[in-house]
Specification:
There is one protein chain. By secondary structure, the chain is α+β, with helices and mostly antiparallel strands. The chain folds into 2 domains: 77 residues, Elongation Factor Tu (Ef-tu), domain 3, CATH 2.40.30; 90 residues, Elongation Factor Tu (Ef-tu), domain 3. The protein is built from 5 helices and 12 strands. The protein has a 6-stranded antiparallel beta barrel with strand order 1-2-5-4-3-6. The longest helix has 10 residues.
């Protein structure tokens, strides 16, 4: 589990394709001494397992599914990435609950200067729009942000100067693909209620005929 508060950034030193996926080699800008092989790390919002480490460089494997469903397959040598190690129990939850499981890929449609901040508009995959609410949370490339406004096919966020400096967002531009993870609480609520789903309509015994029969 992560928080969406980026610990630091890294740069891809190598990206090696393999028949069963790929291997990433990333050099980080913070101390990895307390990080062990086998532990998780979020790379641009994707939860990966550290398979090897040497100093401030680590390696991680990417499965075919990760390459297909996230932006990590577009990384190349020199690419900058956002990094976060897992939340420890008892620590402050500064962002929101982030699993590191990417729900979809969005595309940056607008980048507008708003003083020292930047207003970013992102096109949203249709299957995610139901989970986006104004003032709700979303993770973009692993960064916990608040949704300013949203519609069925887009949403807007504000990137303050601190976030620009501490993440890869200072270089974000129109056309860039970004990993999106919606609020896990929203997904569970949607699954548990699903009152407007075909599954519910087929399963319920309350029909117009039933209501008429009982005097409604």
């Amino acid at each position: 589990m992560f928080t969406g508060i980026i610990e630091g950034t890294g740069k891809v030193k190598s990206f090696n394709r393999k028949p069963d996926g790929a291997q990433l080699e990333i050099a980080v800008d913070f101390n990895l001494e307390q990080t062990n092989v086998g532990e998780s790390i979020a790379v641009n919002g994707c939860c990966l397992t550290i398979t090897s480490r040497l100093g401030d460089t680590f390696w991680a494997d990417l499965s075919p599914e990760t390459l297909q469903l996230t932006t990590l397959g577009f990384l190349k040598e020199g690419s900058a990435v956002n990094l976060e190690r897992p939340l420890k129990l008892g620590e402050r939850l500064g962002g929101h609950l982030v699993q590191g499981h990417v729900d979809g890929v969005g595309v940056v449609e607008k980048v507008i200067d708003a003083g020292e901040s930047k207003k970013i508009t992102i096109k949203t995959p249709s299957h995610l729009s139901r989970y986006l609410v104004e003032k709700g949370s979303i993770a973009i490339d692993g960064v916990s942000l608040t949704i300013n406004c949203c519609d069925k096919d887009f949403f807007e966020v504000m990137i303050i100067p601190h976030t620009q400096v501490k993440t890869t967002f200072q270089a974000l531009k129109v056309g860039d693909r970004v990993n999106l993870e919606v609020d896990i609480i929203g997904k569970y609520v949607g699954k548990l209620t699903h009152l407007d789903s075909e599954e519910y309509k087929k399963g319920t015994k309350i029909t117009q005929e039933f209501l008429k029969k009982h005097g409604f």
